[in-house]
Structures are given as C-alpha cells and as structure tokens.
Amino acid sequence: MERKHEKYQRLLDFCKALPPTPTAVAHPCDESSLRGAVDAAGMGLIAPILVGPRSRIEAVARQFGIDIAGLTIVDAEHSQASAEKAVALVREGKAEALMKGSLHTDELMGAVVRRETGLRTARRVSHCFVMDVPTYAETLIVTDAAVNIAPTLAEKVDIIQNAIDLAHALQFKEVRVAILSAMETVNPNIPSTVEAAALCKMADRRQITGAIVDGPLALDNAISLESVAIKKIDSPVAGRANVLVVPDLEAGNMLAKSLSFMAGADAAGIVLGARVPIILTSRADSVMTRLASCAVAVLVAKARREAGTRAVA
C-alpha cells in the first residue's frame, strides 16, 4: 500500500509559501542527483546552481531526458573542484544552501570544514535524519548517524543544540530530547549513561537551550508510553520524545536503518552547524525523501535569515 508521507507532505506544504532557496549543487553528474535537484526546483523548493563538469552534466541531462534549460551551470573540472566551487558560491553569498551530488560525502565535507576557505562556524558540524515513521505520531529527529563517529561530551552539546534548532525551524510545538543509552538509570560502567546525566544537568543550567532534555533513556522508554507506565518513569520526555540523541555514529546508523528497512520509515538527511544547511541524499532515497531533504534545508535557511535579521535589529 502506497505511503501517504503525511509528515513530509506537511513540510512541503509549508514551503509552498516561501521563495525558492538558492542552492549550490555540488557535482550532479548522475541521474539521481541531477533529477533530485531539478525535481526540487520544479516544486519551487530550491533555485539550483549546478556546479560540475558542464559537458558531463549536459550529457546526463540528455541521456535521461532531464530538462535543465534555464538552470545556471558553474563549470568545474572534477568532483573536488566542484565541492570547492560550490562552497565558494556560499561564501560569496550566491547560495543559501549546499546540496550533495554524485561525489563522495567526504569530498564535500572536506571542502566545508576547511579552515581558511570552508563554511565553519563556532558550532560543531553534525547530521540529523528527519524521519517519517509510519507507526509514530510525530516527526522524529535522529542525531548523529552520519558525521561524528564517537563524539565527546562537549561535541554532544553542539549535536544536541543543532538538533534543537532544527526542530524549531521545522515548527515543532515542543522539543522533547531523549538522550539514548541501553537503560534509564545512570551506571558508571556504561559511559553513555553518565554523559546523558551530565548533558541533562547542562540543559538545566542553560548550556543547552530551547528544549526539554532527559536521559539516559533506553529506546523503548523514549518512544513508548506503555513502557514508561510499566517502568514507572516520571519524565516529560519519556514515551513522547521527538528528538533522539544516540551515543555514537554506529548506534545512530543502526537505529535509522532499522526504522527505514523494518518499520517503513523515510529518512531525510541534513547537515547542520555550517554557515548554511547541507542537503545529503542517497542514491537509494525515494523522490519524496529527496524533496523532504530539500524542504528541511529551506526551512533551516529561512530560520537563519530570520535570526540574522533579529541580530541586526
């Protein structure tokens, strides 16, 4: 039975009233990456600037019948040059988002985090999956499952804050963050439970802001009210979390892929903490997931513009 993608559709509907976001698309040299950018442009989500070898981009468009008439192409010799030029377009103020094409993620992120010419901010760069899980009432944010392998306590502060800021950009009415581990009690033999407790106290002291934060929580305690009732856990987050913070990349990757392949979830990917949102899509992503990833970036870019306007005022 065809999925209705109700949560993603709400994102797309919200973006209809917004102007397209200028987006540098790095090396869209295969069908899926080029079609993804063109489809998003057709929906009015982004105004793509295609960065890569002009002859290859045009050849892919001809081969697969993709209409790129009217789209700007910035010629770049190869994938590394494509990443560098796409980042340069952002630094020049010509793009408000960055989108991965058919190059390796490491190539793109290498250009993003380069100290002198990249897009670094004071915030740690991190990845969020915005997940549409059919069996869960709310949109779920899972972080970090793609960038930070074994984050330190300090790095987790930024990872959590990035996710909270994303939730606000996506218009979450209340942001409820569950810091996941294998159990809901602090156990000195399991470091992630100790870190979770420290992060909660940091939230109490406003070192992390904008959300209700609780942990450690096992996954069932984070998302199942029945489990919470059985275990008699008193928490405003337990059973109702809409942001799941994992201990490390391996746990996050397994969680996101389990939800995708065993629970029929879709996972839109976004990288945060740089000057602009970075859209990361996979060749295996559905059209709806690609569009949702672009919609997430549009809303993040909008939130950044509004924050900049308030700062100037």
Structure, explained:
The protein is an alpha/beta fold. The chain folds into two domains: 1-120, Rossmann fold (3-Layer(aba) Sandwich), CATH 3.40.50; 124-273, Isopropylmalate Dehydrogenase. 44% of the residues lie in helices and 18% in strands. It has helices spanning 6-15, 31-42, 54-64, 79-91, 105-113, 153-169, 191-204, 219-223, 225-231, 249-262, 287-312; strands at 21-26, 46-52, 72-75, 97-100, 126-132, 140-143, 176-180, 212-217, 243-245, 266-272, 278-280. The protein has an eleven-stranded mixed β-sheet with strand order 3-2-1-4-11-10-5-6-9-7-8, with helices on both faces. A hairpin with a 5-residue loop joins strand 10 (266-272) and strand 11. The longest helix has 26 residues, at 287-312. It starts with 5 loop residues before the first helix and ends with a helix. The mean pLDDT is 94.
